Amino acid sequence: MYHALNVIMLVVSRTKLLAFLRRPRTWPTVLGALTILLLLSGACSGNGEPSSDDSLSDYSDAATIDTSESTQRSAQRTPETSSTTLTATSATSTTVLPATIVPTSNESPPVTLAPTFVGLVADIDDDLAVRMSSSWRDGCPVALDDLRYLTLSYWNFDGQPVEGELVVNASVALEVVNVFQKMFAAEFPIQGMRLVAEYGADDNLSMAANNTSAFNCRFVAGTQSWSKHALGRAIDINPLVNPYIQGSKIDPPGGAEFADRTIDFLGSINVGGDVTTAFADIGWSWGGAWTWPDYQHFSAP
After folding, report:
1. What is the CB-side half-sphere exposure of residue 202 using CA atoms within 13 A?
2. Whole-angstrom Cα distance, residue 5 to residue 176?
3. Is residue 52 in some structural domain?
4. How remote is the C-alpha of 64 from its chain's centroid?
5. In this structure, are 135 and 223 located in the same domain?
6. Angle of helix 14-22 relative to helix 26-43, nearest 10 degrees?
7. 3 state DSSP class of 179
8. 141 within a domain of the structure (yes/no)
């Protein structure tokens, strides 16, 4: 009521109030206006007056709804991504960033391991005896039990480390492994290293193929004397490139183009080289020092 009278006082001045109230039709109008003002005043006082907490709650609800709707709209606009993502979030939106793998600074570069030399010594078993049937027979100056089968690493003419095979006398097996280990470390190239039996025990065919070999039950060429190859105590290395020269005769014949020893051919053996030095270290002799040089040939005493 007090608030209602204040409103009236703002509209009509005090001097005119009495004259206004004396008019016959004034009171119904005043009473109507007071009734309206009382209703309005009641809505804004007591239990009907909205508290500041209620007002904040209403605004908070509105803000929450707006944020939720904004998030839904943002989610609808965000394309689907894979599970491998990094996600950065804010209060009202989500941004998806592609994953990036960053190498750590302490990662070591790849390590390239040097090839490892393989040198294995084994007895002659039954299967190997069958393979050697052309190169060993009854009456040979050495028994199969006195021979050993070697598996040896070497560098081929393509510069790749591979494995080959030799058969030698058991008494020299370990020292031969030692020599080939030094040759492997020096990366001396060998074209091939197969049992001479793979060529039907034909020494000429084996030499023509530049095949490195050891044991072969045969005589010295042109004689009836056993070769040291028949004892498993001699090795011929790259025989085509390192031929046996007897004046105008060269074995193998294809080795003629390699007869000039002033030229360092691939796989050639020279005085003071890695091969001659390695064999000299175990007391073997080199045919390249003979009157008629046999550059391929090394033999035990």
Report:
1. 7
2. 129
3. no
4. 54
5. yes
6. 120
7. helix
8. yes
Predicted local distance difference test score (pLDDT) of residue 26: 56
Q: Is residue 201 part of a domain?
A: yes
Q: What is the CA radius of gyration of the chain?
A: 54
Domain of 263 in residue numbering reads as 119-299
Task: Give me the pLDDT at residue 84, please.
Answer: 36
**Residue (of 275, 244, 242) closest to 176 by Cα position:** 275
- Residues of the chain predicted below pLDDT 50: 2-5, 7-13, 46-102
Q: How far apart are CA 252 and CA 114, in angstroms?
A: 36
Cβ distance 153 to 117 under 8 Å?
yes
Residues 31, 39: Cα–Cα separation, whole Å: 12
199 is a domain residue: yes
- Strand-pairing partners, residue 162, are 154
In angstroms, the first-to-last Cα distance of the chain is 140
SS3 172: helix
- Tokens, residue 132: 């050697």
- How far is residue 251's CA from residue 209's CA, in Å, rounded to a whole number? 12
Structure token pair of residue 285 = 């002799």
H-assigned helices in the chain: 2-11, 14-22, 26-43, 52-77, 126-131, 173-185, 203-208, 274-281
Are 118 and 163 in contact by the 8 Å Cβ rule? The answer is yes
Domain count, the chain: 2
Pairing of strands 161-169, 147-155: antiparallel
What does the chain come to in residues? 301
Return the SS3 of 236: strand
Indicate if 290 and 142 belong to the same structural domain.
Answer: yes
pLDDT at 294: 98
Return the pLDDT at 42.
58
